[in-house]
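Reviewer comment 2.1 asked that we show a complete input and output for one of the modelled complexes. We chose the beta-D-galactopyranose case, as it is the one discussed in the main text.
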Amino acid sequence: MRKGILSLTAVTAAAVLTLAACGDGEESGGEQQGKIGVILPDTKSSVRWESFDRPLLEQSFKTAGVKYDIQNAEGSTQRFQTIADQMLTGGVTVLVVTGLDSNSAAAVQRKAQQQGVKTIDYDRLTLGGVADYYVSFDNVKVGEEQGKGLQKCLGDKKANIAYLNGAPTDNNATLFAQGAHSVLDKVTSYKKVAEQAVPDWDNQQAATIFEQMWTQQDGKIDGVLAANDGVGNAAIAVLKKNNRAGEVPVTGQDATVQGLQNVLDGNQCMTVYKPIKQEADAVAKLAVGLTKGEKGETTASVDDPQGKRKVPSVLLTPIGVFKDNVKQVVDDGFVKKEELCAGAYAAKCKDAGIQ
Ligand code: GAL
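Response of the prediction step:
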């Protein structure tokens, strides 16, 4: 009996060593068939792609025991297409993409389809594309959370609202704005005084755009609907320069460390927490199913008005985060307490119940 246990232990140890030797972002040498390629969009629009999505996708694929290759297009559609070509010749059987814009992502999806490779839209829907599935959060709900959050921080007083929307090339940005307007347009005491999209979610451009809004409105902006934490932080920097930070509520999204610290400082009204592990697990499950020729389970079907089709989708629920529930994001392990509560934030974390 003892010999039996010893040999089993030896086999297990060997299997663990094999897996561990596979390295990051490349094949995991799993027992599943097929290989999943993932192309993330950039590293600038949000820290989420490299800080959260990549490690969580790796974890999901390793758990599923499937080969994978995760690359980042670094904000370049040319690089996006080159990576896709390399993956397609490299034998991926499922290609997961977060497009920089619908045209370039749809071209990649058509090329994949011609080679019998299945594709999944991850986080952003490719308008006019041919993805077999779409996995994301309910992005209209993200905008609704932002709108409700701004209303909660402003109250129903007379207020001038400025909108800093996401990239016009990102279908999510359209949905975020739709959700926010569905809430704020109903509040009769609010007036939209400015609204602009931030190209590529570029935070420097967001600062310039908001500075121009502030000047044009002669500082008479009472609330900022900013579509994610990076853009929100850019607006907060301008407010700080005008000694108005903390008085003019600003929204965000992605529950980044920077965004959560701005919330703890009282300079950001709220952020939207999207438990990316759920998104990564959902796309891994569908992708692994596709490698086995299975039809995956979806929870919704989302309209692609350009492609005139309904895309089988998994839509997850976003969570509004204010000072009083930052703790939930830490308790979920999404951000590390050591990182969030460093230095002066130790006291602010304690005040927020984060021990
Ligand atoms: C969106 C994504 C958001 C936001 C933005 C910037 O498509 O859903 O999480 O951060 O991109 O990358």
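The first helix runs from residue 2 to 20. We note this here for comparison with the apo prediction described in Section 3.2.
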